[in-house]
Amino acid sequence: MPDIADRLNNIAISASVAMTQKARDLAAQGIDVVGLSTGEPDFPTPAHAIEAAHQAALAGDTRYPPTDGTPALRAAIARKFKRDNDLNYDVSQIITAGGARQIIFNAMMATINPGDEVVIPTPSWISYADIVRFAGGIPVAIPCDEENGFKPLPQNIDAAITDKTKWLLLNYPSNPTGSVASRDELQAIADVMLKHPHIWILTDDIYEHLIYDGCTFLTLAQVEPKLYDRVLTVNGVSKAYSMTGWRLGFCGGPAPLIKAMSNVNTQNAGGIATVAQAAAIAVLDGPQDLLQERAAIYRKRRDFVLEKLAAIAGLRCHKPQGAFYLFVNIAAFIGKTSAGGRVMNTDADFVMALIEEQHVVSVPGAAYGMSPYIRLSYATSMERLQTGCERLAAFCEGCR
């Protein structure tokens, strides 16, 4: 058999994807599984988005699209950036792709040479480091302590930068921690980056509208306009508008970078489905009331689960102000044995025992670069959250 490419040797299947598939497999066996592993909203796609897609199809808008997005969609994205982020991007500075993940992939492929370094505050989304490796780069993790809300200290970012650093990746609200950066915190990071003009900065803002407790979302190029020509502002319709299956991400950035990404885009994609582009225009230009309504529901779910976790001896969890995840400290259970007899030396052991014995699916913190933690998603119904918390409590009580 011919060989598989060496570039895949250090690339693993996403742990969150693997855990979600585990939940599906168990459910297919007739087991009542509580899946708290997936980063997917449980709300329906807005009706006006579906209607826009339907009308586009009826009108015959079913041909090959422009690879980088239709002019109408890119104009809607430009309006979104101005309305929500006070950022002025010309249509020529905007590109679309098959989700924010592909936007990030295209950016790394367009800019990274072998040996280039990418600084990533950690814990971080699973795919960042693997995408960097795929492009031939070296991910450089900056550990972010729970005591600081899992956010990086500016001096630690500064210390991680070398002459080989090509990018700094930022993600607020954060996956997996739900952390949100304040204006002062972003300005402190910006002050560091102003000293290093050879570095691009990517801000992954995909959870922008999932924010709680009176927090205000800000993005880096908005806070520090002097960095405008070096920042790639990434977003999409998946999380805010419950359109994960439509696969549409977008970004705004400096024209030379967008041009390079477009070159990559033409080789790995044929453009987003025309009906998905029509749906995205509808939600970006349509009523925005549902964003706050859904965020309020997520906040209630967060508070509910936090209350339940606080009553479970041995678990500790900081209060996130965004996204729909809880990054739960399970240090008290490392070295213990579950009721089913599994010795839990790692957070991965904890996760597997929880699946096997209580059929609750989570993701180990190691997948995000920090142990011993587990990530729980509260993007599901109160009923399932109640059942999941009850089972988690029973599991923890049975550990010795």
How would you portray this structure in words?
The protein is an alpha/beta fold. The protein folds into two domains: about 5-45 and about 290-395, Aspartate Aminotransferase, domain 1, CATH 3.90.1150; about 45-285, Type I PLP-dependent aspartate aminotransferase-like (Major domain) (Aspartate Aminotransferase, domain 2, 3-Layer(aba) Sandwich). The chain has helices at about 15-30, 45-60, 70-85, 100-110, 125-135, 155-160, 185-195, 220-225, 255-270, 275-285, 290-310, 345-360, 380-395, and strands spanning about 35, 95, 115-120, 140-145, 165-170, 200-205, 230-235, 250, 315, 325-330, 360, 365, 375. The strands form three sheets. A seven-stranded mixed β-sheet has the order 2-8-7-6-5-3-4, with helices on both faces. A four-stranded antiparallel β-sheet has the order 9-10-13-12. A two-stranded parallel ribbon has the order 1-11. Strand 12 (about 365) and strand 13 form a beta hairpin. The radius of gyration is 21 Å and the shape is globular.
